Amino acid sequence: MSTRTEPAPITQPARSVGQVDAVETPERAAARKRLEARRDFRSHLVAYVVVNSLLVVVWLITGAGYFWPAWVIACWAAGLLIHAWDVYVQRPVTEHDVDEEMRRGS
């Protein structure tokens, strides 16, 4: 008489070869957030170039008079620059920053 054992329930999702379990530390979460912000900015930049290129083409097709796409290009560029500042220049708030602010507020 053979004894049959039930397989252990799967509690972890299947992993690919070489994949390691990563614990979501605060540093890792911050790095992921920075990477996602850079990716979002690149998508924003591509949309800016594509849409504004199409507007310039429309301007050319319709007679190339007053360069009205400049208004859209300039206003959107302002938003794009603010987005770039937020992603690439502005540093994240650290615990030291919070401690300093608490000392100033007391």
Compact description:
The protein has 106 residues and is mainly α.
Layout of helices and strands:
Blueprint: H1 26-61, H2 69-89, H3 95-105
Helix pairs in contact: 1-2
Low-confidence stretches: none
β-strand amount: under 5%
Termini gap? 77 Å
Average pLDDT works out at 86
Sketch the topology as an H/E string, one letter per element: HHH
Largest sheet: none
In percent, how helical is the residue content?
Answer: 55-70%
Count every beta strand, where a strand is a DSSP E run of 2 or more residues.
Answer: 0
Name the shape in a single word: flat
Q: Indicate the radius of gyration in whole angstroms.
A: 26 Å
Class from secondary-structure proportions: mainly alpha
Helix run count:
3
Quick tags:
mainly alpha
Explain this structure.
There is one protein chain. The protein has a domain of 63 residues. It is built from 3 helices and no strands. The longest helix is centred in the middle third of the chain and has 36 residues. The N and C termini lie far apart (77 Å).
